[in-house]
Amino acid sequence: MTPSLPSPRRAPARGKRAFAATWWGQAWVAALEDSSLDAGRLSRGRTYARKGMVGPTTVAPGQIKAPVQGSRPRPYRSAVHLPVLTNAQWDTLLDTIAARAGHLAALLDGEMPTELVDDTRHTGVPLLPQPTELEPECSCPDWGYPCKHAAALCYAIAATIDTDPFVLFALRGRGREEVFAQLRALRTAAQETAAPPAPAGIPAAAAYARWAEESPELPELPEPAAHATALPVAPPPGTGLAAADLERLMADATARAARLLAGATADLYLTQHQDAVRIAASSPGPEWFHHLIRNTGTKPTAFARLTRAWRHGGPTGITVAEQPYTPDPTVMKAARTSLGTALAEMADSPAHLRTWRNRLTLTHHGIQLRLGPDTRWYPYLQDDDGEWWPAGPADSDPVTALTAAWPQNGG
Fold first, then answer.
1. By the 8 A CB rule, do 341 and 353 touch?
2. How many angstroms separate the CA atoms of 138 and 29, rounded?
3. CB 411 within 8 A of CB 388
4. Which of 55, 64, 77, 195 is deepest in the core (most CB within 10 A)?
5. CB 197 within 8 A of CB 58
6. pLDDT tens across 226-242, in order?
7. Residues 6+ positions from 150 with CB-CB distance below 8 Å
């Protein structure tokens, strides 16, 4: 059981969604609001939360509790219940976290990666609450579902969930320390059951000599078709499928098969979200582009930014655009030193470099370099709205990546 938390910080005074700044905190607020048809009680709950009428909050498996001050002198006892995960669901969730090092790194940094939620959803494990799962409870006589006091508790706890996504884990049944202990056990078990080392073999020179003597003849790689053939028959009426769309998918499948035959296997491990960006980056036309945006639920500007990131860096480019992480400090320090020396020659005035996690930003020049998990530097430029856009291919040398972006931004 998690000990009592201090009363959550007050949210900004304006806006329905102002109680949460992160996407996972906003998902909590959305689950609350989607579970109720009573806009009036939700509005009163937001007012109570903003006025600080929610007392210290206690988080336990399956519930959040807090006293909420109402119109009477004594506060009401309010709670919100959420189903805990079964042991089988927890096993699936922990396996999903352990499968990607980035999941655990993001959680340690106080962030909830979207990919983790997507992965668990695909396996049937609901980490984020669904609207039908939240069950309010209150000692007040109000018959609302939820009443304004339980609604206030939900809004107030959103700020705490923003800061610590492990509150969601605790609500689902297991706290931070228990989760980490079980992840460590999984890692230890994986190491103990690892495959035994391969046989020592023979020296490389001897192996090559033996191969050269036998000289086996390798089959020739077949030439892939340049274009997919037309459909033999038209799609059945009423299916909503167009022949042109299916032929485009055939051409895409042909191109992917050709890349696989050539040894490029990155496409095999794309998520649905990444594959939509890949298709958009192939310039399928405005109609397809808008369909992909709508079906992925992504904002048009964000989707366009990811499309450009794919063109410059493929799947890794998307990771760099979406997931900041904390790299080795010595790598960032060495890059900062190299850039400082180069900037002394390139800039007319002293350039100010700001470091945040894997990003180095020239604050007065609108240029940013992001270190990818492939140890290459990806250049970004800032537009007039303050948004960062991929500006070119990555390079293992931060100075080369900076030089590529420098002319684009006029220095």
1. no
2. 19
3. no
4. 64
5. no
6. 544 566 667 777 766 66
7. 45, 68, 78, 79, 80, 136, 137, 138
Which tokens in the block code for residue 220?
Answer: 């020739």
Split at pLDDT 50, 70, 90, the class of 37 is low
CA distance 89 to 84: 9
Please report the DSSP string for 20-33 in residue order: --SHHHHHHHHHHH
Q: How sure is the predictor about 200, in pLDDT bands with cuts at 50, 70 and 90?
A: low
Phi and psi torsions of 375, nearest 5°: 65, 25
Burial 131-170, CB ≥16 within 10 A → b, else e: eeebbbbbebeeebebbbbbbbbbbbbbbbbbeebbbbbb
* Distance in angstroms (rounded) separating the CA atoms of residues 293 and 287: 10
35 or 387: which leads in pLDDT: 387
Q: Extract the tokens encoding 3.
A: 């000990």
Length of the chain, in residues? 411
Which residues, at least 6 apart from 13, have a Cβ–Cβ distance to it below 8 Å? Answer: 50
Q: What's 54's DSSP letter? A: B
Q: Which residue has the tokens 């109000």?
A: 142
Task: Report the number of secondary-structure helices (H) and strands (E) in the chain.
Answer: 15, 9
* pLDDT for residue 48 is more than 80: yes
DSSP string over 210-248:
HHHHH-PPPPPPPPPPSSPPPPSSPPPTTS---HHHHHH
